Amino acid sequence: SDLHQMLATKSVENIQFLPFLTTDVNNLSWLGYGCLKQDWTLIIVNTTGAALQTLYILAYLYYSPAKCPVLLRSLLLLAVLAAGYGYFTLLIADTGTRLARLGLFCSVFTISMYLSPLADLAKIVQSRSTRCLSFPLTVTTFLASTSWTLYGLQLHDPYITIPNVPGILTSLLRFWLFWRYPPGQDKPYRPLHA
User: Fold this and answer.
1) Mind giving me the DSSP string for 60-81?
2) What is the pLDDT of residue 185?
3) Are 17 and 56 in contact (CB under 8 A)?
4) Alpha-carbon span 77 to 80, nearest angstrom
5) Separation between Cα atoms, residue 3 and residue 51, nearest integer Å
6) How buried is residue 164: exposed, middle or buried, by Cβ count under 10 Å (0-12/13-18/19+)?
7) Its membrane topology, per UniProt (predicted)?
């Protein structure tokens, strides 16, 4: 929906850049894990995800009036990825150790991504408004994290299973918030005091 909004309005107003960047890092990290493990499901899904996130980043850069900060963050992402690649391929010779450390990194990064929407929890409860939450994104997160949890359980891979459980839990919490504070109850105005 963010890409559609950027294309329709030819603007990045009210669209955050950081989620595109962090999701791209997440996809590329899991892609590396999938390549190391030779798991074609991880490879195909995360190649597609990384390609889409890169497309979103390029569209954001194109429509952004302040190109320098976007470009600097993107270059920082590339530097972090290059450093990570160097660490995991040059400094860790044993494939089993490399797989375990990369799996741990991917897991921690994924958990932090799933927990990040909770930063607005106090604001949502205080304002009694879910305006800052995306319902389609909540549904997608729930379905994706549930699918990956089941896939990880099937493979007996804790690096896939464990980090996706918080995605399920945070999605359920956001569903509850949508139920508790329905979007239709949002008031775009403040009551006047007489």
Assistant:
1) HHHH-S-HHHHHHHHHHHHHHH
2) 59
3) no
4) 5
5) 14
6) buried
7) Multi-pass membrane protein
pLDDT confidence of residue 192:
44
Instruction: Tell me the average pLDDT across 50-56.
Output: 91
> Positive or negative CA dihedral for 35, 39, 42, 47?
positive
User: Residue 128, by phi and psi: left (phi above 0), alpha (psi -120 to 50) or beta?
Assistant: left
Evaluate if residue 193 carries a pLDDT over 70: no
Alpha-carbon distances, residue 62 vs 9, 26, 73, 133 (angstroms)? 13, 23, 14, 26
Query: Among all chains, which residue has been given the structure tokens 């105005």?
Result: 189
- Domains plus CATH for the chain? 1-91 (1.20.1280), 112-183 (1.20.1280.290)
Helices vs strands, H then E, count in the chain: 8, 0
Query: Tokens at residue 4, please?
Result: 């559609």
pLDDT digits (tens, 9 = 90+) for 78-101: 888 888 888 888 888 898 999 999
- DSSP letter for 131, please: T
**What's at 145, amino acid-wise?**
S
* pTM as predicted: 0.81
Q: What is the DSSP letter of 90?
A: I
